[in-house]
Design brief:
The protein is of the alpha/beta class. It has one domain: Response regulator (Rossmann fold). α1 packs parallel to α2.
Length: 104
């Protein structure tokens, strides 16, 4: 697991993890220095990173983001067990589908 404090750092973390391939991105949409929407757009344009599932953590979510840019959602506040369940579901799906196709 890697943690990034900004959208720019998140892109760098994903790029560094490429040989091992991240199974999931948990994205807080209210990031400092680059919002989650811009991060997700950049990820979606990168052919090496685009198919990594994205779980969006939000308090208030723009309907455009909800419709187009996330694989799953987790609304704040949430309990740790809820986050653990979402991560387990998507990472298990990634192990079953090594080609990166998201389907829990």
């Amino acid at each position: 697991m890697k943690v990034a404090a900004s959208g720019v750092a998140g892109q760098e973390c994903l790029r560094e993890s490429l040989p091992a391939r991240a199974c999931l991105v948990v994205l807080e949409v209210e990031l400092p220095f680059a919002d989650g929407y811009l991060f997700r757009l950049a990820q979606a344009r990168d052919p090496d990173l685009a198919d990594i599932p994205v779980v969006v953590v939000y308090r208030r979510l723009d309907p455009t983001f909800r419709a187009n840019l996330a694989t799953d959602y987790l609304q704040r506040p949430f309990e740790l067990h809820q986050l653990a369940a979402v991560v387990a579901r998507w990472c298990a799906a990634a192990r079953k589908n090594p080609d990166g196709s998201p389907s829990p």
